[in-house]
Amino acid sequence: MSFTDPFTGITPGRKLNAEETLRALRIDVAAELDATNLYQAHIDAIDDERVKAVIAHIRDEEKEHIAEFIALINELDPTQSQKFQAEHPQTIESGQMGVLPTEQGAAGQTAEARAQIGMQLTVGSLLGQEQS
Fold it and tell me: Quick one: which H or E segment has residue 112?
């Protein structure tokens, strides 16, 4: 997958302005999500438990990075923060991003419960919509 290069047209040595910084951070989120999916695919395809454990640890660090980037974007982009707050008011307290809500989703289970039993999470399931 290719994303727009946030550095296109920027003179070497010039710092990013606020909008360019936000664009770069959004690309960073996409890259972390891509890495998370790649590591999970490796875990799913490997039998060696030691290797799986190391890759799972790295995957979980990527998830932490995603949360950090999203918190930063919410801090720097008032419109994004407003939209996020409107959809997930319990996730932001005192300007700090917390754990995503574990609202009831598909089959009446929380996202955490579905993850623990190996159900695939989708945008719809995370929003509490039944999968078809």
Answer: helix 111-116
Same domain flag for 93 and 112: no
How far apart CA 40 and CA 66 sit, in angstroms, is 15
Strand segments, DSSP code E, in 1-84 are none
Which residue from 64, 79, 77, 74 is spatially nearest to 19, judged by alpha carbons?
Answer: 77
Radius of gyration for the chain, computed over Cα atoms and rounded to the nearest angstrom: 17
Please tell me the predicted confidence (pLDDT) of residue 86.
Answer: 77
Q: How far apart are alpha carbons 7 and 28 in whole angstroms? A: 13
pLDDT in tens, 80-113: 888 877 776 665 444 444 444 333 333 344 445 4
Q: Are residues 66 and 119 in the same domain?
A: no
